[in-house]
């Protein structure tokens, strides 16, 4: 604990000296959430990155999130504490594959989840996050949508917008995919009054049994304010930290084994540590550097989204 306090003091000194801001996603380790200047879901974090007047952004999240901050702020230094922290789902979509689909369906709009790499964003018409996906897709004039890369978020949107035709990339989030409806229903047996809240990255069968579906922030809002004392949470276990901080009077139930990789635990999100945050603040290493042309192209669909919601 003494060592942790020293690191935190060093981080505080460095961020002040360098006019740096630390942005963190809800799936980060608790100790990182505690020192962040701002915590949010991916849409809130993108917006915060766009608005900040800091000179340096330290992005505690997976790489596509740090890339998004850089694309929106090409003039700023964006540091990623651990460059190994990627998103396996983002890596499932390829630039070439998207171009191929575009060729096959020239009348479709390419809608990419923010969980994509910069090259895929560059060939997209618009970006969405889990918070705004339905609203953004509904606002498009095209009747045909190529949705990349999350087939489950894609199916969830498709169900709400039956008038449009969807071509779904077959990507998925490994930790959310592994959460089965049975795991949640078993908990519901034990806590009969409980509400079930899940992320739309969960597979369709799991989403079907939920009382609430939303982004990480939306799940936090629902769980901390709904009228049941017990809430079963179908998303990454990092949320527990904020839930208990915001409303400690409720019982947040995460599926069994949630503390282990293989259930709803994103190993990549946990690769950032306080030590690494201090290190990048000190040395200004692990800077996000992207190809200028790709960045320019990727900014358009991102800004188009931010102008809608
Ligand atoms: P949110 O936009 O809900 O924060 O989700 C990001 C993410 O990677 C979920 O796995
Ligand atoms: Fe990617 Fe899933 Fe981890 Fe989110 S939880 S960063 S979608 S692997």
UniProtKB/TrEMBL annotation:
GO terms for molecular function: 4 iron, 4 sulfur cluster binding; metal ion binding; quinolinate synthetase A activity. The keyword Magnesium does not apply. The keyword rRNA-binding does not apply. It catalyses: iminosuccinate + dihydroxyacetone phosphate = quinolinate + phosphate + 2 H2O + H(+). SUPFAM superfamilies: NadA-like (SSF142754). Belongs to the quinolinate synthase family. Type 2 subfamily. Its main location: cytoplasm. Iminosuccinate binds at residues 25, 42, 113-115, 130, 199-201, 216. InterPro entries: NadA, NadA_sf, Quinolinate_synth_type2. GO terms for biological process: 'de novo' NAD+ biosynthetic process from L-aspartate. Pfam families: NadA. Binds 1 [4Fe-4S] cluster per subunit. Catalyzes the condensation of iminoaspartate with dihydroxyacetone phosphate to form quinolinate. The gene is nadA. It is found in: Cytoplasm. Its EC number is 2.5.1.72. Pathway: Cofactor biosynthesis; NAD(+) biosynthesis; quinolinate from iminoaspartate: step 1/1. [4Fe-4S] cluster binds at residues 87, 173, 266. It is an enzyme of class 2 (transferase). This is Quinolinate synthase. Keywords: 4Fe-4S, Cytoplasm, Iron, Iron-sulfur, Metal-binding, Pyridine nucleotide biosynthesis, Transferase. Its cofactor is [4Fe-4S] cluster. GO terms for cellular component: cytosol.
């Amino acid at each position: 604990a003494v060592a942790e306090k020293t690191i935190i003091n060093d981080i505080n000194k460095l961020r002040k000296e360098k006019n740096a801001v630390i942005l963190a996603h809800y799936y980060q380790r608790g100790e990182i959430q505690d020192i962040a200047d701002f915590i949010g879901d991916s849409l809130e974090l993108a917006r915060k990155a766009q608005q900040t007047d800091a000179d340096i952004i330290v992005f505690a999240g997976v790489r596509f999130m740090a890339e998004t901050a850089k694309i929106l702020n090409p003039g700023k230094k964006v540091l990623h504490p651990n460059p190994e922290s990627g998103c396996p789902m983002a890596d499932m979509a390829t630039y070439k594959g998207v171009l191929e689909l575009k060729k096959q369906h020239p009348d479709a709009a390419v809608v990419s989840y923010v969980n994509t790499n910069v090259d895929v964003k560059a060939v997209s018409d618009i970006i969405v996050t889990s918070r705004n996906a339905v609203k953004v897709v509904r606002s498009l004039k095209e009747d045909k949508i190529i949705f990349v890369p999350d087939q489950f978020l894609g199916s969830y949107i498709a169900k709400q917008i039956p008038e449009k035709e969807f071509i779904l990339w077959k990507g998925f989030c490994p930790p959310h995919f592994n959460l089965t409806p049975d795991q949640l229903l078993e908990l519901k047996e034990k806590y009969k009054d409980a509400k079930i809240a899940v992320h739309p990255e969960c597979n369709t069968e799991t989403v079907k049994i939920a009382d609430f579906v939303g982004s990480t922030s939306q799940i936090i809002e629902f769980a901390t304010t709904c009228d049941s004392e017990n809430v079963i949470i179908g998303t990454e276990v990092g949320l527990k930290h904020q839930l208990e901080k915001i409303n400690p009077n409720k019982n947040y139930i995460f599926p069994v084994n949630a503390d282990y990789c293989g259930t709803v635990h994103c190993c990549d999100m946990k690769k950032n540590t306080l030590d690494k945050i201090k290190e990048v603040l000190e040395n200004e290493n692990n800077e996000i550097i992207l190809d200028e042309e790709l960045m320019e192209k990727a900014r358009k669909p991102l800004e188009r989204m931010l102008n809608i919601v």
